[in-house]
Amino acid sequence: MNRRDRFPLAVLVVLAVLWSSTIPARSQEPEPSFRITAERWAEAERLFRTDPHWLGGDGASSVDLGKGRILWLFGDSFIDSTGARSRRSASIVRNSVAIQNGYEPETARMTFSWKILGNRPRSFFREDGIEWFWPGSGIRMGDVLLVFLVKVCRADNALGFEPSGWKAVLIPNPDSPPSLWGMKYPEIPRTGRVLVGSASVLVLDGYLYAFGSDGRGQAVHAVRWQLADAAGGRLTSPEWWMGPGRGWVRAMPPNAEPVPVFTGGQVEFTIHYEPDLKGFIQVQTLSLADPCLAVRFARGLGQPWSPPECFYQPPERSARGLLIYAGKAHKVLAGAEIAFTYAVNTTGMERLMNDMDIYYPVVLKGAFILDPQGEPREETPVGEPE
């Protein structure tokens, strides 16, 4: 690894510390009683190890592009141009992407992408001067793909960096290979410390909903746009969630603060609708101190969320010097009712260089087990996704 890559490596090692209409009335239907089982999914993990040049990337967000294609988004990534499969000879790019062809991990193929300048690897989503971008979430809407990025800058603090905002990228030709993607950068509103789209996005009832943290990874906020506006890149006037008393508000009063959807979140997590539960689940790693995969449940996006409950304890937590974070759920892989990923990093640079068992996404195959006494009724609640 050359001298100019040392700062990105330091950032990579400490990243986990940071990342550590009318609202319907609350349903009287009892919350479903369920538990989640999860086990390592070797076939899915092998997909991320098939490229001799891509040697691991931070986090892992998935986007269903349709027609058997899945987009994966990664933060800081090791790229070894020599093909020697050595991180010591690799460069670190701020972000990279991959296209999975085929929904079944056992038979799918993965193609990784980043940019090249001269003969050196570069970030797929280019830097903005001295600031750079880590991917948040993304979603396909009809013919276009919208990706949210977290902007990061150097800072005079213990970490040496801090989030400084967010950015959106509109890609009009997502059916093409990533090397041929056109990228448009829509104008975005000022949102203060809220990192819009840093965590999760979903389509519901004609709106695009985007969830993001307050930059400290604790208070989670939500904004939404009419779907046609979002697909057209018209993002300057979102509606903010202001709590059950006020609902969604387009123009907040001066000096007003948005109301969190819930607290105790992370910068990286996922929210999606789960048909068998007739509601929404949110998945995250609980904290660096207790890096279990945890789940929350809500009947609707405008309704209260349950407290987080741990359902899987990563075995890596018992290893000294490892950091576990970026827990997410994925509904895009065939062969499992649900899949989960999390990241394993380390505070030791030597170990990061030499231990090829870490810094690739860990993948779990999961399933829901419903308590017959608490199984939801058959009618569909208000707000089932399209």
Please tag this protein with its features.
mainly beta; 8% helix; disordered N terminus; 4-stranded antiparallel β-sheet; disordered C terminus; 386 residues
Description:
- The protein is mainly beta and 386 residues long.
- Helix content is 8%, strand content 39%.
- A hairpin with a 2-residue loop joins β11 and β12 (144-154).
- The model is unreliable at 2-28 and 375-386 (pLDDT under 50).
Gist of the model:
It contains 4 helices and 25 strands. It is mainly beta and 386 residues long. The strands form 7 sheets. A 5-stranded antiparallel beta sheet has the order 14-15-16-17-18. The protein has a 4-stranded antiparallel beta sheet with strand order 1-25-24-23. The chain has a 4-stranded antiparallel beta sheet with strand order 3-4-7-8, with no helix packed on it.
- Biggest sheet: strand arrangement: 14-15-16-17-18
The run of helices and strands is HEHEEEEEEEEEEEEEEEHEEEEEEEEHE
Q: Biggest sheet, open or closed, and with what strands and sense?
A: 5 strands, antiparallel
Q: How many strands? A: 25
- Helical run tally: 4
Mean pLDDT reading: 89
Percent helix, as a range, is: under 10%
Coarse morphology: globular
Q: What's the gyration radius in Å?
A: 20 Å
| Uncertain stretches | 2-28, 375-386
Report how far apart the termini are.
47 Å
Q: Per DSSP, what share of the residues sits in E-state strands of 2 or more residues?
A: 35-45%
What class would the helix/strand composition place it in?
Answer: mainly beta
